Amino acid sequence: MTGTKTLRGAAAAGAAAVLLAGCGSPSERAGGGEGEEGVVTLRVGATPVPHAEILEFVDERLAADAGLAVDVVEYTDYNQPNAALAEGELDANYYQTVPFLEEYLEGNPGTDLSYVEDVHLEAFGLYSESVTDLEDLPEGARIAVPNDPSNMDRALRLLAENGVVTLAEDTRGQASESDIEGSPLNVSVTAVEAAQLPRSLQDVEAAVVNGNYALEADLPAAAHTLAREETEDNPYANGLVVRAQDRDSPELERLNELLHSEEVRDFMEERWQGIVIPAGRASD
């Protein structure tokens, strides 16, 4: 992809000092080189697939006409982008759900981040390299799930909806391994860092994998999909997150509009064909 500066994982952390040197509200950074008068560069943190690809599409195809440039900073896990945004290293991030953000804010009191609007949904999937159909899941199967609370809850509910486990009734939004009351097949559930779930398929019979990591590992093609999350009325859409003080920034509002454009919706549908699903409105 051209036109964006991409930093990965540890490289992003190493660039923090450079990024901090340019901090300030987006409107304070208008300008640039010749032919870029009045263009505002927005630094947006994202996980690589699909978020960074979507942002790069916006930067390459749409941003210039809106007076923007999008500098995509890639992260390979879920732990850094909110901290980087809160510390002023980013203008926004795009990788998370409302429940994940709420969990982060609860654990980091005094951090004032704001979820702007749903952009897309990535349906969780139950994948396996050795089992081809959910009905063939063996007795005592080992199943890996994400280890962060909001995604673990989501994964366990997918298992419960498909009859793999039963959960206690009083666990709305909070289910963990201790809330599993039973399993017809006596499966064992192991919590694994979300980014490592695709690799865990070598050691377990199945894993519930976040949509972005499933796409990065090409699991829809490389593994068997035993079950997939329902998308209707799903509360786990991903959206743009900003510092609360920048919520009304016209530049960030323009970026949000571009993320809801027909061009971006078409890109998602053509690129990921039903795995990444546009959410919310589309701009005229």
Q: Would you kindly provide a written description of the structure presented here, covering whatever features stand out?
A:
Strand 1 (40-46), helix 3 and strand 2 form a beta-alpha-beta unit. The protein contains eleven helices and 13 strands. Residues 1-22 and 30-35 have low confidence and may be disordered. With 284 residues, it is an alpha/beta fold. The chain has helices at 9-14, 16-21, 48-61, 81-86, 98-107, 149-161, 197-200, 211-216, 219-222, 250-259, 262-272; strands at residues 40-46, 68-74, 92-96, 113-122, 125-128, 142-146, 166-167, 180-182, 188-192, 206-209, 224-228, 238-243, 276-278. The strands form three sheets. A six-stranded mixed β-sheet has the order 2-1-3-12-4-13. A five-stranded mixed β-sheet has the order 9-6-10-5-11. Strands 7-8 form a two-stranded antiparallel sheet. The radius of gyration is 20 Å and the shape is globular.
